[in-house]
Amino acid sequence: MKLSSKTFKDGSLIPGRCGFCVQAPRGHVRLSQNLNPHLAWSGAPAGTRSFVLTVIDADAPTKPDDVNQEGREVPADLPRAEFVHWLMVDIPADVTEIAEGSGSNGVTVKGKSAPSGPAGARQGVNDYTGWFAGDAGMAGTYLGYDGPCPPWNDARVHHYTFTIHATDLDQAKVKGAYTLAELRKALDGHVLASASIRGRYNLNARMRVK
Question: Which domain of life is it from (predicted)?
C-alpha cells in the first residue's frame, strides 16, 4: 500500500493551517485553522473490507513539569509517549481519499461531537480530551481530528505519523467514543496491509525548523 498527501510531503513540516495552534506574533501561540490534511491511498490488497486511520504524535512529554512554563524548556532527552490526534474506523473499501478540511475546519471548543467524514465511518476520541480535562473553558470529549499543538517550549520537534490500515472487517468492534487502546485490540489479527507517512511540527520560537 501507499499513502500520500497533497498537504505535506512525507518527512516535511505540516503546514500551520493544519495545526491546532501556531506561533503567535505576540506571546507564544494562538489557535489555528485546524484543518485535517489531505490524504490519499492506493494498493489495498484483495479482501479489504474497510480502512482504519490513525494519527499519532510519538513525542509527547511524559512529565508536565516544564511544559509551557516561562523561563523553562522541555528537555529533548525527556522520555516521550504517544498523543492521539485522529482515529477513524469503518472507512468504506471504495474510499481512497480524504480532502483537506473535510473532517475538521477550525477549533471546536469542548470538542467536535459529530465530526464529518466518509459515510459510515466512525471517529474515536483524541488526546485533547485528557489534556483539557482540568480546563473549565475547554474540557469536553474531542472526537475526530484535532491538529498539532506541541509545547511552545519543547526542545524536541514533534513527529506525527499518519497510518492507513486495510482490514478484513466490515465493522470494527469498538463502540462510542473509543480509544486507541480499544482500537488496537479490535484490529488484532485483522490488518491486511498498512501504509504511513510522517510530518513534523514545532512551536518553539527558539528553534529554526525547516
Answer: Bacteria
